[in-house]
Design a protein that fits this description.
Helix content is 26%, strand content 23%. It is an alpha/beta fold. The two termini are 16 Å apart.
């Protein structure tokens, strides 16, 4: 089969590989719709995970099952399925402890395009199929459903990590597709004021549609100063970090009220240390909590999130700005995520 791979740091291209082998608990899936992610950009062009050679990229997709292992009970060839970006080993003790993302070691649930080939191929392998696949309901647009793989669960996880409560004032830093889902998650959990930080007009428009009450443009000055002005110097109850770099935590801590929480879902692709301002962190005693997490994967979460689509609570199609057809179009789609022209939020590739 052919796949689009990381050839080395800063290099991508098409390669030929053997079709993956299906284990007794696993499935082989043919992609129907796939999407590139900024994480792919961090992995390839920043070398964030270290050097990788001939590793097929991609971790967002929906597809059709073509083969299942002998012990798979709930899926069969021909089923159209949602495939989460994170596919844990559900029998691991870490999964039993409630941290499936870190099964078999830190971030061990993140397998696609990290420790094994990803979904940008004619076929891909899914471990623990009964625990990691979910049926794609009839009538659901596969392109929109692709957002269920990563963008929706990651963004909504930010509001979970920050523990957004009714009436909270929340700042969402970064309103790419993940941050937009952070905005949506904060709104779904009952936030009152949602301050969305970003500069691109296309993203700001959709942020408003998902529930942002204010847009903070970092090109107009310090986001800290703008948030403090809007809150009359009091700051916010919660912060969701979905963009920025190792210096972003500094402003997040400063705008957070004592007792507040920061949920970080930003993939920090470079830098060695994160800045935490000593004084504004209350000399270490402010009760300002920082929690970073990789979104939980698995079947149950996919089923719950698709129900939000089916009931009209969440419309992920707003994220999709570019549609391509054919597996060979994955390269231009990925370059859009790398170059980020001002009109792009999320490209999707449909495979006939």
């Amino acid at each position: 089969m052919k796949g689009y791979a990381m050839l080395g740091i800063g290099k991508t291209g098409w390669i030929e590989k053997e079709r993956p082998v299906c284990g007794v608990l696993d499935a082989i899936v043919r992609p129907i719709a796939i999407a590139p992610c900024t994480s792919d950009v961090h992995t390839v062009w920043e070398g964030a995970l270290g050097d990788r050679h001939d590793l097929i990229l991609g971790h967002e997709g929906v597809g059709e099952v073509v083969e299942v292992g002998s012990l798979v009970k709930d899926f069969k060839p021909g089923d159209r399925v949602i495939v989460p970006a994170i596919t844990p080993n559900w029998s691991a003790v870490e999964s039993q402890a409630g941290f499936s993302t870190h099964c078999d070691g830190m971030l061990g649930g993140w397998k696609f395009s990290n420790t094994k080939d990803g979904v940008f191929a004619e076929f891909f392998h899914v471990n623990d199929a009964d625990g990691n696949l979910a049926i794609l309901p009839d009538g659901v647009d596969p392109a929109a459903a692709t957002m269920l793989s990563d963008m929706i669960p990651t963004g909504l996880h930010g509001s979970e990590l920050a523990d957004v409560q009714y009436g909270d004032k929340v700042c969402v830093i970064g309103i790419g597709p993940v941050g937009l889902m952070g905005v949506a998650g904060a709104a779904l959990r009952g936030a009152s004021n949602i301050y969305a930080v970003g500069s691109r007009e296309a993203c700001a428009k959709v942020a408003k549609e998902y529930g942002a009450t204010d847009i903070i443009n970092y090109k107009n000055g310090s986001i800290l100063d703008q948030v403090m002005e809007k809150t009359k110097g009091k700051g916010v109850d919660k912060v969701i970090i979905a963009g920025g770099d190792v210096d972003t935590m500094d402003e997040a801590i400063k705008m957070l009220k004592p007792g507040g929480k920061i949920g970080n879902i930003n993939y920090l692709g470079s830098g060695d240390y994160i800045k935490i301002p000593r004084v504004e962190w209350g000399y270490g005693m402010s009760h300002k909590s920082i929690i970073g997490g990789l979104m939980p994967g698995g079947r149950l979460r996919m089923e719950k999130l698709v129900s939000l689509m089916l009931t009209g609570r969440l419309d992920p199609s707003k994220l999709i700005t570019h549609r391509f057809e054919g597996l060979d179009k994955i390269e231009p789609a990925l370059m859009l995520m790398k170059d980020k022209p001002r009109d792009v939020i999320k490209p999707v590739v449909i495979i006939k």
